[in-house]
Design a protein that fits this description.
69% helix, mainly alpha
């Protein structure tokens, strides 16, 4: 049988995720290529290893999220808070569509912390997205201090994404309704803090987490 041609990154990702869920991680790139009837060399046109492929998958989730957001005509006029909410809701819809694969990856992370590197490309894409938001910040009249503030804010939202991700993994509510609620409360609290608003929403978030007995608290 003739080998498949025009092998795309998307097809390799699809085949790999199916392979991992069906039979576990392939023994080698050669066997993976053989199983899916394409030349091993075509794999290396897109990825250097299975590890780089796994990192790319989470990066693709973020890129696809941003692509879908920009397909909505009204998105460009959303305030920053709504843009962030839209990112989270869309991102977790994509994760839910691929939940079995995501849960398998995080199961491995619990026993091997070096596996956290699989989120590297997701982190890059997400922080770039956050830096593109028109977030309210304090002008310290000092370029170095302002840059430190920018980095701190971006890292803070990255931690927020990880918290929501952990909550979603543990969420057993129908249609992950509690994750949606957690997203809304988390974003509201973070924006209230930035605006030095009353801490009612922060307390509301804390009460919600306590009620759910989240391991993050």
């Amino acid at each position: 049988m003739a080998k498949k041609k025009n092998i795309t990154q998307e097809k390799i990702i699809e085949w790999y995720m199916n392979a991992v869920l069906s039979a576990g991680k392939p023994n080698s790139i050669f066997s993976f290529a053989q199983e899916n009837n394409f030349e091993e060399a075509d794999f290396y046109k897109h990825f250097s290893s299975f590890e780089s492929l796994e990192k790319a998958i989470f990066g693709v989730f973020a890129k696809e999220t941003i692509h879908l957001l920009h397909k909505t005509e009204a998105y460009k006029d959303y305030p920053s808070k709504d843009k962030l909410l839209s990112f989270y809701f869309t991102f977790f819809e994509l994760l839910t569509a691929n939940r079995s694969y995501v849960l398998l990856q995080f199961k491995e992370m619990k026993t091997d912390f070096s596996r956290l590197s699989v989120l590297k490309e997701l982190r890059v894409e997400f922080i770039d997205f956050v830096n593109g938001l028109d977030l309210e910040k304090i002008d310290f009249k000092n370029e170095k201090v302002n840059k430190i503030q920018d980095k701190t804010v971006a890292e803070g939202y990255w931690m927020q994404l990880l918290m929501i991700l952990k909550f979603w993994i543990d969420d057993e509510s129908p249609n992950f309704e509690k994750t949606d609620l957690f997203i809304e409360k988390s974003v509201k609290a973070s924006f209230d803090i930035q605006q030095i608003a009353p801490v009612k929403s922060v307390i509301d978030l804390a009460k919600f987490l306590w009620k759910e007995k989240s391991p993050m608290v």
